[in-house]
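Notes from the pairing session

We agreed to fold both candidates in a single pass and log them together. This is the raw record for the first candidate, unedited. Please don't reformat it; downstream parsing expects exactly this layout.

Candidate A
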Amino acid sequence: MGRVGIVEEQLELALLELAVEGLQVGADLGGQLGVLLGELAQLDQVARPPLELQRAVDLVAQLGGFAGERAGSLGVVPDAGGGQLALELG
């Protein structure tokens, strides 16, 4: 084997080492991606109940607005200062 053959083998070995390193980096990134996806799933589990509660509060507020409109037609109007209902006379 001549000098050219040795250089070719060294080049092939270097390329093989780079390929192995690339696979290792890919595996590391894949593992980190798995951890990230697990954390996102946990965040969803923690954040979902308050978001659902907020939606329920918004719905109650909307329904309360409709009730206020009906109460206004009956002579009961909201008090602007205290957030309570007052009876409108006259």
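Candidate B (folded immediately after A)
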Amino acid sequence: MEQKWITDRLPECEVEVLICYKYKNREESHITTAIYEDGTMLENDSILDWEDIDGEYDENEDCYIIPQGWWEYRHFNPDDVYNNLVDDCSKIKAVRCKERGSRSGYGSHQRGKTDQ
């Protein structure tokens, strides 16, 4: 069964997916891996190792809340820097599972569209 690009919902938080993005001032599209954060995940609860994130601080949990958005570590960052917000000058066109047979990352609680 062929995997299709998904354009009408967001993946679960911290599930690595492929994103198809387009710079607003260019015609060509590109593909990279990324994760989506919905703006409610605490840094302490994340499966990722976050450094120097610019989020809201939760004093009760003594950590930051990871800001909402698409994050990746290959195209929108300098060398040796990870978990970078996908650039504001890009539009996410579609999303799909990273590989066949992997956890789908799409649940019934999804909200929003891919171009957020």
